[in-house]
Write a structure and sequence with these properties.
The protein is an alpha/beta fold. It has 9 helices and 6 strands. A 6-stranded parallel sheet has the order 3-4-2-1-5-6, with helices on both faces. It binds 3-methylbut-3-enyl trihydrogen diphosphate (2 copies) and magnesium ion (MG).
């Protein structure tokens, strides 16, 4: 199977310095899977039932992404703020995560999907960390699509974590000999191996970022839907991609500039 950008470092793009290659199908889609609790409450079920159905919805989202030719799917499963939830819900979510990891990894691997987990894993149980490690190791060489699951993740944590790693890696930063640049920080961010998301989807009706990928979403096209996550399906993803295809991604330039350089698509590379 052809190697995708997943393995390539060259296609990394900056939020502000380079214009990324734009394709008709978003290469990287980021999703806030929201609305599990409300889905369950509407059915007079415990919130946990909504989370369980959320796992099935994630399976559908992965399948639909593969079908549409999306190369990277990043989903928000548990935020650094979700620890504020009732203890029984937090512990249910952790157990569900462990269970899903164990049950899904075989199918992911069979379908050539690489699994990655991002976030502050030091906050997770040893058992969970071990399962994450095993799943990542098993699927590490797969190239059809990369599925990244954000657990105990926060966008501010990601930036601070990258900053701290950069300080350790680069003595010149510690000595304050030169100003800190994007290039110092970017390689240490959680998703440094992927291009920034082209399309962001949030289900559940809320229109906020909830501390998700604050750095990486700087120029991502945003799509919000009232559909609750357990109801997510191929049609919903298709509708989001369709909306994405209607957008004009200008990255700071004018429509006139884009029209002038339309010949140089894909990615309006002539303007890079
Ligand atoms: C998203 O659904 C799942 C997690 C945050 C773990 P919610 O549990 O937030 O569902 P609502 O927003 O309460 O409906
Ligand atoms: C965001 O959803 C986090 C996840 C989907 C994992 P929340 O439901 O926690 O977001 P807020 O609290 O409503 O902003
Ligand atoms: Mg919610």
């Amino acid at each position: 199977m052809a190697t995708t950008f997943i393995e390539s470092k060259e296609e990394q793009v900056s939020s502000s310095q380079l214009v990324p290659e734009i394709s008709n199908i978003p290469k990287h889609v980021a999703v806030i899977m929201d609305g599990n609790g409300r889905w369950a409450t509407q059915r007079h079920l415990p919130r946990m039932a909504g989370h369980e159905r959320g796992v099935a919805a994630l399976r559908r989202a992965v399948e639909a992404s593969v079908q549409l030719g999306i190369q990277a799917l990043t989903v928000f499963a548990f935020s650094s703020e979700n620890w504020r939830r009732p203890e029984d819900e937090v512990s249910f979510l952790m157990t569900l995560f462990l269970r899903a990891l164990k049950s899904e990894v075989k199918d992911l691997h069979k379908n050539q999907i690489k699994l990655r987990v991002i976030g502050d894993l030091s906050g997770l149980s040893t058992r969970l960390r071990k399962a994450v490690e095993e799943a990542e190791e098993k699927t590490a060489l797969n190239t059809r699509m990369v599925l990244t699951v954000a657990v105990n993740y926060g966008g501010r944590w990601d930036i601070l974590n990258a900053m701290n790693k950069a300080l350790v890696a680069s003595p010149h930063l510690r000595e304050l000999k030169a100003p800190v640049t994007e290039d110092d920080i970017r390689p240490h961010l959680s998703l440094a191996n992927l291009p920034e998301p082209d399309l962001f989807i949030r289900t559940g009706g809320e229109q906020r970022m909830s501390n998700f990928m604050l750095w990486q979403l700087a120029y991502t096209e945003l799509y919000f839907t009232d559909l609750l996550w357990p109801d997510f399906d191929y049609e919903c993803l298709e509708a989001a991609v369709h909306s994405y295809q209607m957008r004009e991604r200008r990255f700071g330039r004018t429509s006139g500039q884009l029209a002038m350089h339309a010949d140089s698509v894909p990615g309006h590379a002539g303007l890079v």
